[in-house]
Amino acid sequence: MYLEDILARHRDVASRDDRKTSDLVEVALRSDVSRGFAKKIVQDSVDCLAVIAEIKRRSPSRGALNQDLDPEIIASQYQQAGASCISVLTDSEFFGGSAVDLQRARNASVLPFLRKDFTVSLNDICDARIMNADCILLIVAALSRAELSEFHLFAKDLGLDVLVEVHDEAELEAALNIGAKIVGVNQRDLKTFEVDEQRAVRVANKIPRDILKIAESGVKTKSDALQLRQAGFHAILVGESLVTSDNIVNKLKELRV
After folding, report:
1. For residues 89 and 104, what is the distance between their CA atoms, to the nearest angstrom?
2. Contacts for 204-209 with beta carbons within 8 Å, 24 or more apart?
3. CA 174, 185, 38: angle at the middle one, nearest 5?
4. Which among 45, 66, 186, 241 is annotated as catalytic?
5. What per-residue confidence (pLDDT) applies to 59?
6. Among residues of the chain, what percentage have pLDDT more than 90?
7. Is 216 a catalytic residue?
8. Are 233 and 49 a contacting pair, CB within 8 Å?
9. Catalytic site residue from 66, 165, 213, 251
10. How does the average pLDDT of the chain come out, rounded?
11. Can you give the pLDDT at residue 1?
């Protein structure tokens, strides 16, 4: 239910976007030089599990998490604690985020940034580059195979890294077929928002060794993180357990196993 509602809203907004993609491309290509999202994860995952720390105000399933967070303060704490990259929810209606959150956080940190949102158009990808994101998210379950391929190539041409999110082996095959080099296994079912904490471990065995592997959702403890590192993941993407923690710095350090 959640995914369908969110996508319907985003596609409705995209259908009413009358900006010319060609004009946006010109602006996007003048944006800051990429900080290298994938490169940073590769470097940091040599010695321990890299952490992509997420700035997330609320979620459709849990409601408010840290509604009044300061993106600059959180980004600084994430960097201090050893995060490799930072993810920012920019969806406003369902997650309470914004492009301003990403821009404020990026100004307070030297780390690479992922724009975490529901990408449904080429203009969405241009917007990500314009707001100086270094990586975008493409969700296999949210896109047709033609869109997935087109968006992936377009983003790469704009100088963006692309995290392609999957939930099972069939979606993994679709990601690999379009040449994805960064694959995220989301343990949260986007229809029910329930978390299966063994999903990433199961799918990991099917991911080729040369692919950058990221586990998303459901990582709460050091043992969770350790299990994922042992399964071959290079990084974890963590949001809720960080933004709801009484000590964000210590919590993040605990997950860098």
Report:
1. 13
2. 204/231, 204/232, 204/233, 205/231, 206/169, 206/172, 207/172, 207/183, 207/232, 208/176
3. 90
4. 186
5. 86
6. 90
7. yes
8. yes
9. 165
10. 95
11. 53
Q: State the catalytic residue, choosing from 34, 40, 87, 116.
A: 116
* Selected catalytic residue, list 56, 171, 213, 240: 56
How far is the first Cα of the chain from the last one, in angstroms, to the nearest whole number?
35
80 is written with which tokens?
Answer: 């201090």
Rounded CA gap, 244 and 242, in Å?
A: 5
Alpha carbon dihedral 40, 41, 45, 50, in 10-degree steps, equals 110
Known catalytic residue: 123? Answer: no
Q: What is the reported pLDDT for 170?
A: 96
Identify the active-site residue in 59, 84, 217, 241.
217
Active site residue 144: no
The one catalytic residue in 34, 40, 45, 54 is: 54
Q: Which two tokens stand for residue 242?
A: 């960080």
Q: Is position 181 annotated as part of the catalytic site? A: no
Q: Is 20 a catalytic residue?
A: no
Q: How many residues does the chain have?
A: 257
Q: Which of the following is catalytic: 45, 216, 240, 251?
A: 216
Residues 6+ apart with CB under 8 A from 37: 85, 112, 113, 114, 134, 135, 161, 163, 182
- Cα–Cα distance between 158 and 179 in angstroms, integer? 16
- The pTM score is 0.96
Q: What would the pLDDT profile of 91-111 be if each residue is shown by its tens digit?
A: 999 999 999 999 999 999 999
Residue 251 to residue 36: CA distance in whole angstroms? 25
- How many other C-beta atoms are found inside a 10 Å radius of the C-beta of residue 197? 15
Q: Quick check: is 169 catalytic? A: no
Indicate if 165 belongs to the active site: yes
**How far, in whole angstroms, is CA 193 from its chain's centroid?**
16
Q: Which two tokens stand for residue 251?
A: 């919590």
